[in-house]
Amino acid sequence: MNRTVSATEARVRFGEIMRRAKSEPVIVERGGKPEVVVISKQCYDQLIASAPHQDWRELLKEAHESIRAALGDRPILPPPEEIIRRGREERDEQLLNSLR
User: Fold this and answer.
1) How many degrees, rounded to 5, is the angle at CA 40 between CA 39 and CA 42?
2) What is the DSSP string of 28-42?
3) Which of 16, 31, 50, 95 sits at 20 to 30 Å (Cα–Cα) from 5?
4) Contact predicate 18/28, CB 8 Å
5) What is the 3-state secondary structure (H, E, C) of 49-97?
6) Of 27, 44, 26, 43, nearest in space to 35 by CA
């Protein structure tokens, strides 16, 4: 069974928390809500070893492909000239409104 302690108790008794975490996860709460879990290095190593390892470049490529598929032929952003033109129009309108 997992042990649950407050953040204050974990701070004061961290050595004990470390010893207990070698045999079971220790949940640390702040304000009555679980915030973190202290686990042994062995458990951490097992989690890392079992996690799927995918290169961040591959993840980024997949994200780009997904966005392109969702957008279809629509451009992601308007052309820079259009953004500048809109910004100038907004600025001019604000200046005129401030003079009125």
Assistant:
1) 130
2) EEETTEEEEEE--HH
3) 50
4) no
5) HHCCCCCHHHHHHHHHHHHHHHHCCCCCCCCHHHHHHHHHHHHHHHHHH
6) 27
Query: Above 70 in pLDDT, residue 87?
Result: yes
Give the pLDDT of residue 1.
Answer: 64
pLDDT one-digit tens code per residue, 56-74 = 899 999 998 998 888 888 8
Q: Computed over its alpha carbons, how large is the radius of gyration of the chain?
A: 27
Contact 6, 30 (CB under 8 A): yes
Record the pTM: 0.53
Amino acid letter, 98: S
Round to whole Å and give the CA distance between 100 and 98.
Answer: 6
Edge-to-edge strands, sheet with 33-38: 3-6, 26-30, 33-38
Residues 6+ apart with CB under 8 A from 2: 24, 25, 26, 27
